[in-house]
Amino acid sequence: MGTQKKHLIIIAGEASGDTRAGKLVNAIKALSSEITFSGVGGDCMQEAGVELFDNITSLAVIGIAEVLKNLGRIKKVFDRILSEVDKQKPDAVVLVDYPGFNLRLAAQLKKRFASGEQNRTVKVIYYISPQVWAWREKRIKQIKTVVDRMIVLFVFEKDLYALYGMNVDYVGHPLVDEIKIEQSPADVLQSVGLQTGRVTIGLMPGSRQKEIERHLPVMLEAAQKLYNLDHRRQFLLLKAPTINKDSLKRYIQTSLPIKIYEGTPYDGINAMDAAIVASGTATLETALLNKPMVIIYKTSWLTYAIAKAVVKIPYIGLVNVVAGRKIVDELIQNEANAEQIASSINTLLKDQTRQQLLKVELAKIKTSLGAPGASRRAAEIILEEI
Question: Which one, of 351, 336, 364, 213, lies nearest residue 277 by Cα?
Fold first, then answer.
Protein backbone atom coordinates (compact mmCIF):
# COMPACT_ATOMS: atom_id res chain seq x y z
CA MET A 1 0.00 0.00 0.00
CA GLY A 2 1.02 3.62 -0.43
CA THR A 3 2.22 5.88 2.33
CA GLN A 4 -1.16 7.63 2.55
CA LYS A 5 -3.01 6.01 5.46
CA LYS A 6 -6.66 5.15 4.99
CA HIS A 7 -9.20 5.88 7.69
CA LEU A 8 -12.28 3.88 8.72
CA ILE A 9 -15.09 5.03 11.00
CA ILE A 10 -16.81 2.05 12.65
CA ILE A 11 -20.18 2.25 14.41
CA ALA A 12 -21.40 -0.47 16.79
CA GLY A 13 -24.40 0.03 19.06
CA GLU A 14 -24.34 -2.80 21.59
CA ALA A 15 -22.14 -5.40 23.30
CA SER A 16 -22.26 -8.10 20.60
CA GLY A 17 -21.58 -5.54 17.84
CA ASP A 18 -18.65 -4.16 19.83
CA THR A 19 -17.18 -7.70 20.12
CA ARG A 20 -17.56 -8.35 16.38
CA ALA A 21 -16.16 -4.93 15.47
CA GLY A 22 -13.13 -5.45 17.75
CA LYS A 23 -12.33 -8.76 16.03
CA LEU A 24 -12.84 -7.14 12.62
CA VAL A 25 -10.40 -4.31 13.42
CA ASN A 26 -7.78 -6.82 14.61
CA ALA A 27 -8.24 -8.79 11.38
CA ILE A 28 -7.84 -5.63 9.24
CA LYS A 29 -4.70 -4.68 11.18
CA ALA A 30 -3.24 -8.15 10.60
CA LEU A 31 -3.65 -7.57 6.85
CA SER A 32 -2.58 -3.92 6.67
CA SER A 33 -0.75 -1.43 8.87
CA GLU A 34 -1.94 1.46 6.70
CA ILE A 35 -5.38 1.91 8.28
CA THR A 36 -6.47 4.10 11.19
CA PHE A 37 -9.77 3.74 13.03
CA SER A 38 -12.24 5.82 14.99
CA GLY A 39 -15.90 5.38 15.87
CA VAL A 40 -18.58 4.51 18.39
CA GLY A 41 -18.25 1.26 20.34
CA GLY A 42 -17.13 -0.22 23.63
CA ASP A 43 -14.18 -1.91 25.35
CA CYS A 44 -13.47 -4.45 22.58
CA MET A 45 -13.15 -1.77 19.91
CA GLN A 46 -11.04 0.39 22.21
CA GLU A 47 -8.71 -2.52 22.99
CA ALA A 48 -8.36 -3.16 19.26
CA GLY A 49 -7.09 0.41 18.82
CA VAL A 50 -10.21 2.29 17.72
CA GLU A 51 -10.28 5.90 18.91
CA LEU A 52 -13.80 6.19 20.33
CA PHE A 53 -15.57 9.53 20.06
CA ASP A 54 -18.60 8.09 21.88
CA ASN A 55 -19.39 4.97 23.88
CA ILE A 56 -22.09 2.38 23.16
CA THR A 57 -23.54 2.88 26.62
CA SER A 58 -25.37 5.86 25.08
CA LEU A 59 -26.99 3.56 22.53
CA ALA A 60 -27.64 0.31 24.38
CA VAL A 61 -31.41 0.66 24.67
CA ILE A 62 -33.99 -1.77 23.33
CA GLY A 63 -37.61 -1.57 22.35
CA ILE A 64 -39.68 1.33 21.05
CA ALA A 65 -40.63 2.62 24.51
CA GLU A 66 -36.98 2.74 25.67
CA VAL A 67 -35.81 4.34 22.42
CA LEU A 68 -38.46 7.09 22.74
CA LYS A 69 -37.32 7.81 26.30
CA ASN A 70 -33.68 8.08 25.22
CA LEU A 71 -34.26 9.88 21.95
CA GLY A 72 -32.35 13.03 22.97
CA ARG A 73 -29.25 11.06 23.92
CA ILE A 74 -29.41 8.91 20.78
CA LYS A 75 -29.82 11.97 18.54
CA LYS A 76 -26.76 13.56 20.14
CA VAL A 77 -24.64 10.51 19.23
CA PHE A 78 -26.14 10.46 15.72
CA ASP A 79 -25.25 14.13 15.12
CA ARG A 80 -21.78 13.64 16.57
CA ILE A 81 -21.08 10.80 14.11
CA LEU A 82 -22.13 12.96 11.16
CA SER A 83 -19.91 15.81 12.31
CA GLU A 84 -16.96 13.40 12.80
CA VAL A 85 -17.50 12.03 9.27
CA ASP A 86 -17.39 15.63 7.96
CA LYS A 87 -14.27 16.38 9.97
CA GLN A 88 -12.31 13.13 9.59
CA LYS A 89 -13.24 12.43 5.94
CA PRO A 90 -12.99 8.63 6.23
CA ASP A 91 -12.54 6.32 3.25
CA ALA A 92 -15.46 4.23 4.48
CA VAL A 93 -17.99 4.02 7.29
CA VAL A 94 -18.48 0.46 8.55
CA LEU A 95 -21.84 -0.05 10.24
CA VAL A 96 -22.05 -3.07 12.54
CA ASP A 97 -25.52 -4.54 13.19
CA TYR A 98 -27.80 -2.18 15.25
CA PRO A 99 -30.17 -1.54 12.30
CA GLY A 100 -32.64 0.94 13.82
CA PHE A 101 -29.80 3.41 14.23
CA ASN A 102 -27.34 2.36 11.53
CA LEU A 103 -29.76 2.25 8.59
CA ARG A 104 -30.88 5.80 9.38
CA LEU A 105 -27.24 6.81 9.58
CA ALA A 106 -26.51 5.15 6.20
CA ALA A 107 -29.42 7.07 4.63
CA GLN A 108 -28.16 10.34 6.08
CA LEU A 109 -24.61 9.72 4.86
CA LYS A 110 -25.78 8.91 1.34
CA LYS A 111 -27.99 12.01 1.32
CA ARG A 112 -25.13 14.29 2.34
CA PHE A 113 -22.74 12.98 -0.28
CA ALA A 114 -25.35 12.75 -3.04
CA SER A 115 -26.42 16.36 -2.46
CA GLY A 116 -22.85 17.54 -2.99
CA GLU A 117 -22.56 18.89 0.57
CA GLN A 118 -19.18 17.18 0.48
CA ASN A 119 -16.85 17.26 -2.50
CA ARG A 120 -16.41 13.51 -2.28
CA THR A 121 -18.15 10.24 -1.53
CA VAL A 122 -17.72 7.78 1.29
CA LYS A 123 -18.26 4.04 1.04
CA VAL A 124 -20.95 2.70 3.38
CA ILE A 125 -20.25 -0.93 4.29
CA TYR A 126 -22.67 -2.89 6.47
CA TYR A 127 -21.30 -5.78 8.52
CA ILE A 128 -23.87 -8.17 10.11
CA SER A 129 -27.11 -7.72 8.27
CA PRO A 130 -30.32 -6.32 9.74
CA GLN A 131 -32.76 -9.21 10.18
CA VAL A 132 -34.67 -8.42 7.00
CA TRP A 133 -35.71 -12.08 6.74
CA ALA A 134 -37.67 -11.69 9.98
CA TRP A 135 -39.66 -8.62 9.02
CA ARG A 136 -39.94 -6.79 5.70
CA GLU A 137 -37.97 -8.43 2.95
CA LYS A 138 -38.91 -5.55 0.64
CA ARG A 139 -36.83 -3.27 2.86
CA ILE A 140 -33.82 -4.65 1.01
CA LYS A 141 -34.72 -2.31 -1.86
CA GLN A 142 -34.27 0.64 0.49
CA ILE A 143 -31.06 -0.81 1.99
CA LYS A 144 -29.64 -1.21 -1.52
CA THR A 145 -29.91 2.57 -2.08
CA VAL A 146 -27.93 3.49 1.06
CA VAL A 147 -25.40 0.65 1.51
CA ASP A 148 -22.57 0.01 -0.98
CA ARG A 149 -21.68 -3.44 0.28
CA MET A 150 -23.38 -5.85 2.66
CA ILE A 151 -21.37 -8.48 4.56
CA VAL A 152 -23.54 -11.26 6.02
CA LEU A 153 -22.98 -14.08 8.52
CA PHE A 154 -25.60 -16.56 7.32
CA VAL A 155 -25.74 -18.17 3.89
CA PHE A 156 -29.53 -17.74 3.62
CA GLU A 157 -29.02 -13.96 3.97
CA LYS A 158 -26.72 -13.90 0.94
CA ASP A 159 -29.38 -15.64 -1.17
CA LEU A 160 -31.99 -13.13 -0.03
CA TYR A 161 -29.94 -10.02 -0.85
CA ALA A 162 -28.78 -11.52 -4.15
CA LEU A 163 -32.44 -11.82 -5.19
CA TYR A 164 -32.58 -8.02 -5.12
CA GLY A 165 -29.29 -7.66 -6.99
CA MET A 166 -27.41 -6.24 -4.02
CA ASN A 167 -23.62 -6.31 -3.63
CA VAL A 168 -23.45 -8.93 -0.85
CA ASP A 169 -20.76 -11.23 0.58
CA TYR A 170 -21.23 -14.22 2.89
CA VAL A 171 -18.32 -14.69 5.32
CA GLY A 172 -19.69 -17.17 7.88
CA HIS A 173 -20.07 -16.52 11.61
CA PRO A 174 -17.13 -15.21 13.70
CA LEU A 175 -18.40 -17.21 16.69
CA VAL A 176 -16.93 -20.32 15.06
CA ASP A 177 -13.46 -18.85 15.75
CA GLU A 178 -14.28 -17.16 19.03
CA ILE A 179 -15.53 -20.09 21.06
CA LYS A 180 -12.55 -21.47 22.90
CA ILE A 181 -12.63 -23.22 26.26
CA GLU A 182 -9.90 -22.20 28.68
CA GLN A 183 -11.22 -23.60 31.98
CA SER A 184 -12.76 -26.96 32.76
CA PRO A 185 -16.36 -27.01 34.09
CA ALA A 186 -15.01 -28.18 37.47
CA ASP A 187 -12.63 -25.18 37.67
CA VAL A 188 -15.43 -22.76 36.72
CA LEU A 189 -17.81 -24.14 39.35
CA GLN A 190 -15.13 -24.19 42.05
CA SER A 191 -14.05 -20.63 41.20
CA VAL A 192 -17.52 -19.31 42.13
CA GLY A 193 -18.18 -21.67 45.03
CA LEU A 194 -20.56 -24.16 43.38
CA GLN A 195 -20.17 -27.92 43.68
CA THR A 196 -18.89 -30.21 40.95
CA GLY A 197 -20.97 -33.26 40.18
CA ARG A 198 -24.28 -31.41 40.64
CA VAL A 199 -26.69 -30.51 37.83
CA THR A 200 -25.88 -26.90 36.93
CA ILE A 201 -28.55 -24.78 35.26
CA GLY A 202 -27.42 -21.57 33.57
CA LEU A 203 -29.27 -18.26 33.70
CA MET A 204 -28.41 -15.92 30.81
CA PRO A 205 -30.68 -12.86 31.07
CA GLY A 206 -28.97 -10.68 28.43
CA SER A 207 -26.38 -7.95 27.98
CA ARG A 208 -28.57 -4.85 28.45
CA GLN A 209 -29.96 -3.43 31.66
CA LYS A 210 -33.56 -3.52 30.40
CA GLU A 211 -33.16 -7.21 29.56
CA ILE A 212 -31.96 -7.88 33.11
CA GLU A 213 -35.00 -6.06 34.53
CA ARG A 214 -37.41 -8.04 32.35
CA HIS A 215 -35.77 -11.48 32.36
CA LEU A 216 -33.89 -12.02 35.62
CA PRO A 217 -36.86 -11.96 38.05
CA VAL A 218 -38.76 -14.61 36.05
CA MET A 219 -35.57 -16.68 35.58
CA LEU A 220 -35.04 -16.67 39.35
CA GLU A 221 -38.64 -17.70 39.93
CA ALA A 222 -38.19 -20.58 37.48
CA ALA A 223 -34.91 -21.49 39.22
CA GLN A 224 -36.73 -21.71 42.55
CA LYS A 225 -39.29 -24.09 41.03
CA LEU A 226 -36.55 -26.22 39.50
CA TYR A 227 -34.74 -26.36 42.85
CA ASN A 228 -37.95 -27.32 44.67
CA LEU A 229 -38.28 -30.26 42.25
CA ASP A 230 -34.72 -31.42 42.92
CA HIS A 231 -32.45 -30.05 45.68
CA ARG A 232 -29.34 -31.37 43.92
CA ARG A 233 -29.63 -28.61 41.31
CA GLN A 234 -27.53 -25.42 41.39
CA PHE A 235 -27.51 -22.25 39.28
CA LEU A 236 -24.87 -20.24 37.43
CA LEU A 237 -25.83 -16.67 36.49
CA LEU A 238 -23.77 -15.36 33.58
CA LYS A 239 -22.84 -11.67 33.85
CA ALA A 240 -22.34 -9.85 30.54
CA PRO A 241 -19.39 -7.37 30.49
CA THR A 242 -21.87 -4.51 29.89
CA ILE A 243 -23.76 -5.25 33.12
CA ASN A 244 -22.83 -4.06 36.59
CA LYS A 245 -22.55 -6.94 39.09
CA ASP A 246 -24.49 -5.01 41.75
CA SER A 247 -27.45 -4.69 39.41
CA LEU A 248 -27.60 -8.51 39.31
CA LYS A 249 -27.07 -8.93 43.06
CA ARG A 250 -30.10 -6.72 43.74
CA TYR A 251 -32.38 -9.45 42.39
CA ILE A 252 -30.80 -12.38 44.21
CA GLN A 253 -32.51 -12.34 47.59
CA THR A 254 -32.90 -16.07 47.84
CA SER A 255 -31.49 -19.10 49.59
CA LEU A 256 -30.96 -20.82 46.23
CA PRO A 257 -27.50 -22.27 45.50
CA ILE A 258 -26.81 -19.59 42.85
CA LYS A 259 -23.58 -17.80 41.94
CA ILE A 260 -22.69 -15.02 39.50
CA TYR A 261 -20.01 -15.87 36.94
CA GLU A 262 -17.90 -13.01 35.58
CA GLY A 263 -15.28 -14.95 33.63
CA THR A 264 -15.16 -15.83 29.93
CA PRO A 265 -18.78 -16.47 28.89
CA TYR A 266 -17.85 -19.60 26.91
CA ASP A 267 -16.24 -21.21 29.96
CA GLY A 268 -19.38 -20.35 31.93
CA ILE A 269 -21.76 -21.83 29.33
CA ASN A 270 -19.56 -24.93 29.06
CA ALA A 271 -20.03 -25.56 32.80
CA MET A 272 -23.85 -25.69 32.42
CA ASP A 273 -25.95 -28.82 31.92
CA ALA A 274 -28.84 -26.77 30.52
CA ALA A 275 -29.60 -23.07 30.23
CA ILE A 276 -32.38 -20.48 30.24
CA VAL A 277 -31.23 -17.99 27.59
CA ALA A 278 -32.52 -14.59 26.50
CA SER A 279 -33.01 -14.52 22.73
CA GLY A 280 -29.99 -13.15 20.85
CA THR A 281 -26.46 -14.19 19.91
CA ALA A 282 -26.18 -16.02 23.25
CA THR A 283 -28.49 -18.72 21.87
CA LEU A 284 -25.97 -19.46 19.11
CA GLU A 285 -23.10 -19.50 21.63
CA THR A 286 -25.02 -21.99 23.75
CA ALA A 287 -25.78 -24.10 20.66
CA LEU A 288 -22.12 -24.13 19.57
CA LEU A 289 -21.21 -25.46 23.02
CA ASN A 290 -23.91 -28.12 22.55
CA LYS A 291 -25.93 -27.21 25.64
CA PRO A 292 -29.68 -27.88 25.83
CA MET A 293 -31.65 -24.67 26.40
CA VAL A 294 -34.95 -22.86 26.48
CA ILE A 295 -35.10 -19.43 24.82
CA ILE A 296 -37.09 -16.66 26.47
CA TYR A 297 -37.81 -13.02 25.65
CA LYS A 298 -39.88 -10.28 27.25
CA THR A 299 -40.20 -6.68 26.07
CA SER A 300 -42.58 -3.73 26.53
CA TRP A 301 -46.17 -4.28 25.35
CA LEU A 302 -45.72 -1.56 22.69
CA THR A 303 -42.57 -3.12 21.21
CA TYR A 304 -44.20 -6.54 21.33
CA ALA A 305 -47.38 -5.32 19.58
CA ILE A 306 -45.36 -3.72 16.79
CA ALA A 307 -43.10 -6.77 16.45
CA LYS A 308 -46.15 -9.06 16.23
CA ALA A 309 -47.42 -6.96 13.36
CA VAL A 310 -44.20 -6.94 11.31
CA VAL A 311 -42.31 -10.15 12.17
CA LYS A 312 -43.25 -12.81 9.66
CA ILE A 313 -41.20 -15.84 10.75
CA PRO A 314 -42.66 -18.31 13.26
CA TYR A 315 -39.76 -18.06 15.76
CA ILE A 316 -37.25 -15.51 17.00
CA GLY A 317 -34.39 -17.60 18.45
CA LEU A 318 -31.37 -17.54 16.13
CA VAL A 319 -30.83 -21.24 16.78
CA ASN A 320 -34.27 -22.02 15.34
CA VAL A 321 -33.86 -19.51 12.49
CA VAL A 322 -30.54 -21.08 11.42
CA ALA A 323 -31.98 -24.61 11.80
CA GLY A 324 -34.92 -23.57 9.63
CA ARG A 325 -37.34 -25.09 12.16
CA LYS A 326 -38.06 -25.09 15.85
CA ILE A 327 -35.54 -27.33 17.61
CA VAL A 328 -35.47 -25.37 20.91
CA ASP A 329 -38.48 -24.23 22.98
CA GLU A 330 -39.22 -20.49 22.75
CA LEU A 331 -41.22 -18.73 25.45
CA ILE A 332 -42.04 -15.17 24.46
CA GLN A 333 -43.75 -12.39 26.45
CA ASN A 334 -46.59 -13.86 28.61
CA GLU A 335 -45.47 -17.41 27.89
CA ALA A 336 -42.11 -16.55 29.47
CA ASN A 337 -43.42 -17.29 32.94
CA ALA A 338 -41.75 -19.25 35.73
CA GLU A 339 -44.08 -22.25 35.38
CA GLN A 340 -43.47 -22.81 31.66
CA ILE A 341 -39.72 -22.07 31.83
CA ALA A 342 -39.23 -24.53 34.70
CA SER A 343 -41.35 -27.16 32.94
CA SER A 344 -39.32 -26.87 29.72
CA ILE A 345 -35.94 -27.19 31.49
CA ASN A 346 -37.16 -29.96 33.80
CA THR A 347 -38.35 -32.01 30.80
CA LEU A 348 -34.97 -31.55 29.09
CA LEU A 349 -33.08 -32.67 32.19
CA LYS A 350 -35.35 -35.65 32.87
CA ASP A 351 -35.79 -36.92 29.30
CA GLN A 352 -32.37 -38.21 28.23
CA THR A 353 -33.57 -39.27 24.76
CA ARG A 354 -34.95 -35.80 24.05
CA GLN A 355 -31.75 -34.24 25.36
CA GLN A 356 -29.57 -36.39 23.09
CA LEU A 357 -31.73 -35.66 20.02
CA LEU A 358 -31.47 -31.94 20.74
CA LYS A 359 -27.68 -32.20 21.05
CA VAL A 360 -27.54 -33.84 17.60
CA GLU A 361 -29.55 -30.92 16.17
CA LEU A 362 -27.34 -28.35 17.94
CA ALA A 363 -24.21 -29.99 16.49
CA LYS A 364 -25.66 -29.41 12.99
CA ILE A 365 -25.93 -25.67 13.75
CA LYS A 366 -22.15 -25.46 14.00
CA THR A 367 -21.57 -26.87 10.53
CA SER A 368 -24.13 -24.44 9.05
CA LEU A 369 -22.24 -21.40 10.40
CA GLY A 370 -19.38 -21.72 7.93
CA ALA A 371 -15.64 -22.38 8.17
CA PRO A 372 -13.31 -20.57 10.61
CA GLY A 373 -11.89 -17.20 9.50
CA ALA A 374 -15.07 -15.06 9.17
CA SER A 375 -13.48 -11.86 10.58
CA ARG A 376 -10.51 -12.21 8.23
CA ARG A 377 -12.77 -12.71 5.23
CA ALA A 378 -14.78 -9.61 6.22
CA ALA A 379 -11.52 -7.65 6.64
CA GLU A 380 -10.36 -8.63 3.14
CA ILE A 381 -13.66 -7.40 1.64
CA ILE A 382 -13.40 -4.05 3.43
CA LEU A 383 -9.80 -3.55 2.31
CA GLU A 384 -10.79 -4.41 -1.25
CA GLU A 385 -13.63 -1.89 -1.04
CA ILE A 386 -11.40 1.02 0.07
Answer: 336
